[in-house]
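[agent] plan:
  1. take the single chain provided in the ticket
  2. run structure prediction with default settings
  3. attach structure tokens to the ticket
  4. add a short note for the reviewer (M.T.)
[agent] executing step 1
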Amino acid sequence: MKPIQPDDSGFWLLTRGSTLHLHGHKLPHGKASEFALQGRNGMVIGALEQQPLWLVEEREDDPREYVSLRDQLYLPERTFNLLGRGAELNHFFQTHKFCGKCGAETRITQDEWAVQCVNPQCGYRTYPVICPSIIVAVRRGKEILLANHQRHRGDMYTTLAGFVEVGETFEQTVHREVFEETGIKVKNVRYFGSQPWAFPNSQMVGFLADYASGDIRLQEAELYDAQWFRYDQALPPLPPEGTIALRLIRATLDICKHAAD
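[agent] step 2 finished; step 3 output follows
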């Protein structure tokens, strides 16, 4: 990052965790001096509407109001992912101020998104941490398996998900997570798509899978409820637009609709 000059212009992304500052429900746009950003550190992380998108270094004493990044899921995918990039980079810079190898301070590199130890005897370079997580929709004939997680107790039903463990393939994670959380075994696991998920630094890797065997047995620490729902019957509240979870559900419901009886 470098000190922002009064005449620097573009879109300004101020983040705090997985929240961001909006000006009139939109990202601040214009010269830095219009938003009192001169002198703060910043870096260009991409382009938005053919204008530079600046990530501004987080400051604890910033009095501005911040809103959840999740509230911006209605935005075009590229725009939302660009905002997510800023949130993830901010999280990375805030949590890697010291070298994990020797403990000395780090500085943000100029040639790539990374931090490097300032100790000349070390110089260890660290890159943004991305935590892969699977998310899977399971189909049984004309039914889809949907779960109500403890954090959404009594409200939204969604697909199953979980983090990939060391030494594990994505497909192995699908089998393990579905069985651990519901007691269900699956087959025909196939890749669907992915979504960067800046809460705070995940990559959601989506899969479709078919039911193989087993009865629902809840992992109660994770799930409040899980049920099979027919595609042609009323469904519970679902994830919001813009999420890969909703895309997985819709794709599975379409498969259910055309499945042979």
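[agent] step 4 note for reviewer: The CA atoms of residues 13 and 255 lie 40 Å apart.
[agent] ticket updated
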